[in-house]
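S.,

Sequence below, as promised.
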Amino acid sequence: MLLLTVGVPALIKMSVMNRRLKTTGTLVLMSVATAAAGLAAAAWFALWAGTGWALGLVLCACAAAVSAQAGRRFVADTARRYREKRSSEQTIILDNFWLLQTECFAFFLTLLYGWRGLLAAAAFVVYAVVVRLGFRLRAARLGSRRGLRLLVLRTFEKSEREAWPRAAQWFLNSLRLGRGVLFERVEARWRYVGGIHLITGPDLAQETLDPAEFDAFGRGALADRHIDGPRALRRELKLLDLRPDPDGRYRVNEFLCHDHAWRDAVWELARRSDAVLFDLRAFTREHAGAADELGILFGLLPVGKLVFVADATTDFAEFFAAVEEKWARRRGAAQGPRALPRDLRIIRVRKSRWREVEAVVGALLEAAVRGAPRGGQSRRPAT
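The prediction came back faster than expected:
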C-alpha cells in the first residue's frame, strides 16, 4: 500500500517533473492525468450501471472530450497565474506533485474505506493554505526588492549532433551531456538574487520554456514572441520582468532573436545588466558574432563586470586576438600596441561540477557589486 501511494507518484515525479523539463513535463503530466481520470470515471460508471459496451463506448468518448478540454483549461489557467505572478515555475512543480500524491493516496483509501477516503484530499488544502500564507509573510517582510541583473551570452553549438533526430538530441540533453548543464546550475543559484536576461538558441529552448510560453506554443502563438526588428525589441524590453515571484526567485527573460536582430538586443540588455556571463566553450574563428559582442560589451561596461567561462574546446588564440582588437578599438588605439584588459577574468571548467559552478557564481556576484553597472557610453559602439 505504501509503495503504491508513495512510490508511484515519486517515480512519476523523477521521470517527468525533473529540472530539465521544468514545468513543461508537469503540465503535460497533469493534462494526461486529467484525461485518464475522466476515462476511468466513465468506465467505472458504465460497469456499475450495466449500460452495455455500445453505450459505454459513447460515455468514454464523451468523457475523453470533456477531460481533454479540462486539461487544456488547466494549462491555460496555470499560464495565466504565472503571467500574473501568482505562481512560479518552482511552485507549479511542487503544487502539482503534491496534488498528484494526494490524489493517489485518496484513491487507494477509497478502496479500503469507501467515500471517507476522499477526506484525505484535505491534506492538499492544508498544504496550499500554509504555503500561501508563508508567501504573504515573506512578501510583507522583504517586499519587492530589486535583484541583480545577469546577462548570459554564449557561442551557439554547431556540431554533427544537429543532424541527429530531435528525439536523440532530447535524450542526450536529458542525460546531461550538453553544454546547457552549466547554465542550468548557475541559473538555479542566481535566480535567488536576481533575474537573468538570455538571448536564446535552439540548444537552450528546453531549459528555458516557462508555462506562459508552453501555453503559447500549444496555441501556435509562440512565433509572436520572436524579435525580428527594433519594434519587436522595444516590445519585449517593456515586458522585462524584474520583480521576484511569490517564492522569492526571479525569472529568466528570454529574447528569441532572429539573425539580424541579436546585436541590438545585446546592446540594450548589456545596458540593463549588473554582470555578464560569457560562455566561450566551443569558441573558434567561425564565431564572428561572439567577437562583435565583445566590442559591444567593452563599449558599455567595465571589464570587471564580465566573467568568461571556457573549456578545452575554446580556441584561446582566436579569443585573445579578438579581445585585443576590440579593446584597442575601444581605447582608440587601433594603430598602436595591443594589450589585454587587466581585469579580464576567465574561469576554466571541465564537467560543470558543483565546485566549478560555485566559482562561476561567486565571480558573477563579485562582478555585479563592482561600481556602477553601466559604462557611461550613450551611443551604440562600432563593432
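The CA atoms of residues 263 and 293 lie 7 Å apart.

Coffee later?
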